[in-house]
Each structure stands twice: as C-alpha cells, then as structure tokens.
Design a protein that fits this description.
The structure holds two protein chains of two kinds. Chain A is mostly helical. Chain A is built from 19 helices and no strands. The model of chain A has no long low-confidence stretch (mean pLDDT about 90). Classes of the chains: A mainly alpha, B mainly alpha.
C-alpha cells in the first residue's frame, strides 16, 4: 500500500472518517452532517482533479464502483434526512444513528467495489454490523428488539456460510481474486466440485442478505420492526449493494452448474414473494414481500449476458431504490410519537388529508408494480429483455405473471388512500429535508420512466 | 408546408391532455373543458395540412431511447384520424355528462390522462410507445371505477384490470421477442413498427406471437369467451367511464388488431380468420341473446355493444376491401351510437332513480324529447337504413357474403336479434304504462346540446358516409396490398 493509492481510497476514507467525526458533533448537527458527508463523498468520487491511476488493492475504483458508491452515498444521505423526524419523535440518539448509517454506507461501498473474496467478506460484515444495531435502535419498541434479533441470527448463519464458502473456493482455486476465482473454478480448477460447493455456500449467504426465497424469512419482521428510514436503507442500499457485488465482481452464471440454482432462487422468490404479499394488511410487511419479488427479478440480471445484465440490473436497482426510499420515507414522514401509519386502515382518506403525499405514494406503488410510464416499468422492461436475450423464456413468463398478480397488492393501499375521508386532521407538514428527498425520488421515477436515455448512458459507463 | 414554422401537431395533441390533467389538479376542473376544446380544434385542423393521398397525413419522429432503438414516432392516416375524432368527441361527451355529477378535479384529470393514452395508441408508430400508451389508457379508468363506481366497484375494477393486464403482458412479451428477433436478424435493434414489420418470423413462433397479440387485443374488445370483465365493469362504472370503455377502448382493441397483429404476422393471419369469424359470430349471437334477456338497462346496452363489436370482428375476418372498410367505419359508428345510448340510460336513471325495465315505462308521454332521442338512437342501433349502424353493417355483411356466405347468414340472425332487443327496450321504456312518479323533467338545454352533435353524426354517417369511406380507402388498400404481398390473402 502506497500513498499514490490514496485517491482511489479517498471516498471510502471519507465515509469512515465521517462516521467517526459525527460522534463528536452536537446532536442537532449530526444528521445534517451525515447527509453532507454523503454529498462530499460523491464530490470526491467525481471531482476531475482526483484521478486514481494506481488501483488500490481489494477494491476497484472503476466506473462500476464509482456509480455504485455514488448511489449508496445518495441513499445514505437521504436516510439521514428522513431519519430526523423519527429520531426526534422517539428521542433516539442522533449521533450514533448518523454514525451507523455512514458506517453501513461504508460497508456497502466496499462490498459493491470488491475485487476479492476478502473485501467481499469485509464489506458484507461491516454493512451487516451497522444494521444489527440500526434495526434495533429503538429500544423501547419491543418489535424493534425482536427484529434486531431476527436479523442477527440469520446474519451469523450467513457469515458462517460465507466464510466457509470462501475457504472452499480458496482451497480449490488458490485465489481470492474475484473474477479470477470464478474463471479458475469454471475452467481449470483441480477440485472443481469443491469450488462449486464453495460458490453455492457463498451464494446462499448472499441470498440471505438479498432476502431471496427460501432465505427470506427474516425480511417481513425486520422491516416491520425497524424504523422506517432504516428499513428503506436496508431494502434499497444493502440489497442493492449485494446484487451489485454479484453483478460486478462475480459472474456466477459462467459456472454452468450454478445456473439452475440461480434460476431456482429467482423463480422461488417470485412465486413465494407474490403469494405472501397478497394477504398483507401492513404496508411495511407488504413492501418486504414485494422486495423479495423484486430481488427475484434482479436475479434475472445475474443470469443474463454479463454486459446486458450489468446495465439492466443496475438500472433496475436505481429505479427500485428510488421507489423504496420514497415509500419508506413517506411512512417515516407520517410518523408521530405513537408510531408510523403501517396498516392500510391508517392510510384511509390520505388523499384528503395530505394530497401530495398520497400522490407520491401512488406513483411509488405504481412504479413498483411496473405500470408505465413510471420507472419501474422501464426497469422491468430492460431486465426482462436482457433475460429473454439470454434465452430464459420461462423465467420471464413467470416474472410477467408475478407482476400481473402484484398489481393487486400494490393497488389495494392506493384505493384505500383515495377512498372517502374517514379521519380528520392532517399529517404533520413535510419538512425541508424530506421534501428534497421526495422531489429527487419523484424526479427519478418520472424521468427514468419517460426519458430514460440519460440513465442508460450512466449504466453503460459501468460496464468494464 | 413551411418547414420552420411547422408545429408538431400530433405531439401537441398527444401531450396536451397531460398538461390539462395537471391543470385540473393545480387550478380547477374547468381546465378539462379548455383542454378538450383545444384538442378538438387541433384535431379539426389536421386533415387540411397534408394530402390525404399519400399514406400518412402527418408523421412526426423524435429521438427517444437510443439504447433500445425506441423512437417517439407518431403517424396519422385516414383511419387513425377517424379514431382520433371519435376519441375526442366521446371524451367531450364524457366530461360533459360528469360535470354536475362529480365535482372532484381528480376525476377529470384521470379522464384526461386516459385520453392521452388512447390518442397515443391511435398514433404510435413504435411498439414500445404503443405499449406505454396502451397501459396509460387503462389504469386511470380502472382508478375511476374503483373510486367513483357503484357498490361492487372494487371487485369490478380489479376484474377489468386483471383481464386486460394479463392480455397486455402477453403483448409485451410478444413485442420483446419480436424486438430481439429483428435485432438478431438485421443487427439493428429497433422498436419502429415499419422496421419490425420486415422481420421474418419463424412460422411456428409466429403462431404463438400472433396468439399473444390477438388475445391482448380481443380481451379489450371484448369478444365472447374473453368478456368476463365486461358486465360488472360496465355496470359499476360511472357513465363517463362506461362510454369510454365501450366507445373508445374497445376500438383500441380492434385498432391494435388491424394496425399491429395483421401487418406483423400477415402469413399467420389466414390460419386464424376462421377462428376470428367464429368468435365474431358467437359474440353477435350470444351478445344479442344476452341483451334480450337483460332487465337492467345498462347491461342491455352493454351486451348490445358486444353484439355490434362482433360484427366488426367478423368484417375483419372476411378480409376483403368492402368488409374491411365497413368494419373500420363501423368502429366510429358504434362508438357514437353506443355512447349516446349509455348517456341516455344515465339520463333516465337520473330522472327515475332506476335502470330496471320493470320500473320504467311511458317516458314519451311525460318527457317527449327524452323519449324521442331514445327512439332515435335505438333505431340507429338496430340498423335502420339511413342511420349510421346500417351503413357499416351492410358493408360488413356484403363483404362477408362474398367470402363465406354462411358467415353472412349467421350475421343476419344477429341483425334480427338486434331488432328484438332494441324494440323491447323502446317498448318497455318509451311506450307502455307510465310508471314511477307523475312528472319527469324533460331534457334541459345542456343535455340536448350533449346529444345533438351525436345525433347529427348518426345522420351524416347514415346518409352520406362517402367522405369518410374515402378517408378509409387508402389505409385499407395499403393494408390489403401488404397482406397479399406477404401471403396473408389468397
């Protein structure tokens, strides 16, 4: 490690230093500082003066890593802005909250930029460690503590699987380097079955984090128990980072025996997630199951041809992240000291009490359902196109069927919102930070749906 | 034409309703009226701008999504012009009839968004754009039903949504496969209709793709085995939505069949003509029979609409110039007449509080204008010579007779059935014992103003349809030539 690697590592360092610094600030400054820190990182990534000629070990600093880190930093900044209200309402410690969010983003950045199995492990663990605390941050809330425990136990299991898988892959191929280890186990590894077992274990660990069925059982309880901004970060950022790591560094679909496994994960996630979401009456649980379905769609990107897969997958991650952050942000912005309006019944007549929120929520849900001309449709379209190109017709048909059924559970809350007003009194007014986040998410949802060309250019830069 | 000062009229036409929808929300629902008047103005100036002889009256093309070769391209020919007119007339009527009933601006903004989608469907020359508009057309109306409909509205809305969405997802799949196929063959990944049309689709795949598209379009029409959503949706929906569903969205289904399914798979078409004709005939007879047995006025008109749409499908299946022209003309005729009937049903219901045939009777004696208009549009619907439905029906039946005589024979049964159910309607509602309250207010001026232009159109298309047939001549010829060249016709 030498000094000339510094530019490549600067964004990561900034995140780490930021997460430590924030602990020494006054409490009311902590969350805004977190948001600014996220923006600073984005500035450091794209500042033309800081060019990284010498690659750093373990993490890449190419176009893929740059865009990914930007995305996670943006989501982290948004989470800081959204968390303000819920921290104040429930008297949570804001300094630790901001620090943990930045640390989680730090982990995501390492994870999605990892070029080695070691950094993969480090990134995943750093991210997960922050989430263990963040999910159970509200100690007074019993469901919060339960959720924390439910994330902790599968998390340990996943860590164990991951480390064992890495050990097996290293034993078989003698390499930690990421694309190389995959290529070696595809072609020349002397112990190819051991390598395959290792990859299967790594895949199942990753499936835990991305909540792919049948590893999704923790998801609904954790989403329900966690504070909404954290659930948003978990759904968009951490899952996105895991998928990005798979897309960018681990072309698992090159290993022919892994393909049926991936296809099976995708199919199961779509089917189980869809049917489990149907009877839900809690928005957060519904979004949890819907995220299982969306992760199932994203596995299609892993199966597709790598270039098209990266572009389609990352575009989908962007659209999904915008919708999810906005959805959980809306729930957070409607929270009061009593809690968040989680049940569909609490949304009754929202359009009369708070028309802008209802409008945005409608857009978000329709985008998740994949109705044109919103971003979700474009994302699905690109993704399914890429999967079709690689010949996964039956998976695409399954995905289309599941998005057909999904309209039911996405439309139910919408209809409740626009129903005749049943409750008096408006929600609390939207504060500045929330307004900024909502405007940004709405812009992404609308623009990526109607004129996605700039986003396509962005993701086209990510292909190595 | 001056190239510099040329206004992109089609794009304006397509996007203006969206602006109007925003205006409704931000300002007042009166924005809807201004928007629709502006739209009608633009639509009326369209034909004067280009020669009707060339295949396109207007064509506009913009860059949209380069990565996927999707372009924002809109094309207008005689057929789409007729459909655009129909859409705007019915949209104006829909807004007019809801004006005093629904005060919320959201209702009008949803109607306008849907209008934008419908216009897009009629103008789009790019498969992706078409699909986008196809979905935009539907969802606002589903929301309208779910929020403003009758007692079973949620159920009806979901039924409509699931039926049509299932169809359109199949369509999306077919488009994607076509896109990839075309890209692999030529190296040019493009969604442009003209380009994709030249794709050589393997025959076994073409059958499947055609079935996907056909299903998507026929669900929207709907023909009989696919009509499960129709009775509930038509009954529960607000009148404005009902008349848009039957008057415009059904037409979009047939339009898609003519504009996409036929030209994209010309060689597959002959295998399916018999099936299409049978579907059309089944719709005619079943719809007519169901209409005859209904006791609810709105359901009666709904099933009558199914029967009439069956004629249109039959005309397409017959596949000669006369039947085709008749079918396309009938799209317009049917839209006007059915919409007028739905409007009249709403007027009757407003005055008597009931739609049941048993509760009604003797309207003429108490409200002569209303009675006269019901009689007039009923006669039009049963195909009285001199009124609009007759023109289309006779062309379709003559064409069908030329290609397969027995099709026309069964079709004639449908005409008879139409006389039965329409005369039953007139007899039980307009004539007979006066039932219900003693006095019923006659139509007031606004209501007459709503129906008078439609009555004028009924007469015009019935007595002098020549200019419109002329409008349809080129599109039909082009399509038949294309079909013959690609082996779609013997």
């Amino acid at each position: 490690m030498t000094w000339d690697m510094l530019p490549a590592l600067l964004p990561l360092l900034a995140l780490f230093v930021g997460s430590v610094t924030v602990l020494f600030l006054p409490a009311r400054r902590a969350l805004p500082f977190g948001a600014w820190c996220g923006l600073l990182v984005i500035g450091l990534i794209w500042w033309p003066g800081i060019s990284s000629e010498v690659p750093a070990p373990l993490v890449s600093s190419g176009g893929f890593a740059k865009v990914c880190t930007t995305l996670w930093a943006l989501i982290g900044a948004a989470t800081c802005l959204l968390a303000n209200r819920c921290c104040l309402n429930r008297r949570l410690e804001r300094r630790e909250f901001a620090a943990l969010i930045l640390f989680a983003v730090f982990g995501m950045a390492i994870l999605s930029a990892s070029t080695s199995l070691v950094s993969l492990f480090l990134g995943l663990e750093a991210m997960t460690l922050a989430f263990y605390v963040l999910i159970a941050f509200n100690r007074e809330n019993p469901t919060g503590a339960e959720a924390g425990l439910k994330y902790l136990l599968p998390g340990f299991l996943a860590s164990a699987l991951l480390s064992f898988g890495i050990a097996l892959v290293y034993a078989a191929t003698g390499s930690f380097d990421l694309p190389e280890a995959v290529f070696l186990s595809a072609a020349v590894a002397p112990m190819s079955s051991v390598a395959l077992l290792g990859w299967a274990l790594i895949l199942s660990a990753v499936a835990f984090k991305a909540s792919l069925a049948p590893f999704h059982l923790w998801t609904p309880d954790v989403y329900q128990g966690a504070p909404s901004p954290v659930a948003g970060l978990l759904a968009s950022g951490s899952k996105g980072a895991v998928i990005a790591a798979l897309l960018g560094g681990m072309p698992l679909a090159l290993l022919v025996p892994m393909r049926p496994l991936l296809a099976g994960l995708a199919a199961l996630s779509m089917i189980i997630g869809t049917f489990a979401a149907l009877p839900q009456t809690n928005v957060k649980r519904m979004l949890a199951y819907s995220s299982v379905v969306h992760m199932g769609y994203l596995v299609l990107a892993l199966l597709a041809d790598q270039q098209a897969g990266i572009q389609a997958g990352m575009f989908y991650v962007i659209t999904y992240a915008a919708a999810t952050v906005a959805a959980f942000g809306l729930l957070a912005s409607m929270s009061d000291s009593g809690g968040e309006p989680e049940n569909y019944a609490a949304l009754d007549g929202l359009a009369h009490r708070s028309p802008w929120r209802a409008g945005l929520f409608t857009c978000v849900l329709l985008s998740l359902a994949g109705f044109p001309p919103l971003a979700g449709f474009m994302g699905k379209f690109v993704l399914f196109g890429a999967a079709l190109e690689s010949g996964y017709l039956w998976l695409v048909i399954l995905a289309l069927l599941s998005s057909l059924v999904s309209c039911y559970y996405y439309l139910r809350p919408i209809i409740r919102m626009f129903n005749v007003a049943s409750k008096e009194g408006g929600g609390a007014p939207v504060n500045g930070g929330e307004r900024l986040v909502f405007a940004l998410c709405a812009a992404v949802i609308l623009i990526a749906g109607t004129y996605p060309a700039p986003f396509f250019r962005l993701v086209a830069n990510m292909v190595p | 034409m001056n190239g510099l000062l040329q206004i992109p009229a089609l794009s304006v036409l397509l996007l203006l309703p969206l602006v109007g929808a925003l205006g409704c929300l931000a300002w007042d629902r009166r924005a809807a009226i201004f928007t629709i008047l502006l739209e009608v103005g633009i639509a009326l100036t369209l034909p004067s701008e280009g020669g009707a002889v060339s295949s396109w009256i207007r064509y506009e093309d913009w860059q949209w999504i380069e990565r996927f070769g999707a372009r924002f391209s809109l094309g207008l020919d005689g057929f789409s012009l007729l459909m655009v007119w129909l859409t705007l007339v019915l949209m104006a009527v829909a807004i007019g009839i809801s004006w005093f009933r629904y005060q919320q601006a959201g209702f009008y903004s949803l109607l306008l968004i849907s209008c934008s989608g419908v216009l897009g469907v009629f103008l789009a020359q790019d498969l992706l754009l078409f699909y986008l508009c196809w979905e935009i057309m539907l969802l606002p109306l589903v929301l309208c039903i779910a929020l403003w409909g009758g007692t079973k509205r949620i159920q009806a809305a979901f039924k409509l949504l699931l039926f049509t969405l299932a169809g359109s997802l199949l369509m999306l799949l077919a488009f994607l496969i076509l896109f990839l196929l075309h890209g692999r063959q030529t190296g040019d990944y493009s969604f442009a209709l003209q380009a994709v049309m030249s794709t050589a689709v393997p025959p076994d795949l073409a059958g499947w793709l055609f079935a996907c598209l056909g299903l998507a379009f026929l669900v929207k029409v709907p023909v009989v085995p696919l009509h499960g959503w129709l009775p509930d949706a038509y009954e529960e929906a607000p009148t404005a939505v009902t008349l848009l569903l039957s008057g415009v969205l059904a037409k979009a289904g047939v339009f898609g069949l003519v504009r996409l399914a036929l030209p994209l798979f010309p060689a597959t078409w002959p295998d399916y003509t018999s099936l299409m004709a049978v579907l059309g005939l089944v719709s005619i007879v079943y719809g007519g029979w169901m209409a005859y047995t209904q006791t609810d006025l709105k359901r009666l008109v709904a099933y009558a609409s199914v029967a009439h749409l069956g004629f249109i499908v039959l005309g397409l299946a017959a596949g000669n110039a006369m039947a085709m022209q008749g079918s396309l003309l009938q799209l317009f005729n049917h839209g006007i007449t059915t919409a007028a009937l739905f409007v009249l049903v709403a007027f009757v219901e407003r005055r008597t509080g009931s739609r049941k045939l048993g509760d009604l009777g003797g309207l003429w004696a108490r409200a002569p204008q209303l009675g006269a208009l019901i009689l007039f549009f009923s006669l039009a619907a049963l195909g009285l010579p001199g009124l609009n439905i007759f023109t289309g029906e006779i062309l379709i039946l003559l064409g069908a007779f030329a290609s397969r005589p027995w099709w026309a024979v069964v079709g004639m049964v449908g005409v008879l059935l139409a006389a039965c159910y329409m005369l039953r309607l007139v007899q039980e509602v307009v004539w007979g014992e006066p039932r219900g309250s003693e006095t019923i207010a006659d139509l007031h001026r606004g209501e007459v103003a709503l129906l008078a232009p439609m009555a004028g159109l009924v007469l015009w298309f019935g007595l002098y349809p020549l200019p419109f047939l002329h409008l349809l001549h080129n599109p039909v010829e082009n399509m038949l030539v294309h079909l013959v060249m690609k082996g779609g016709l013997p």
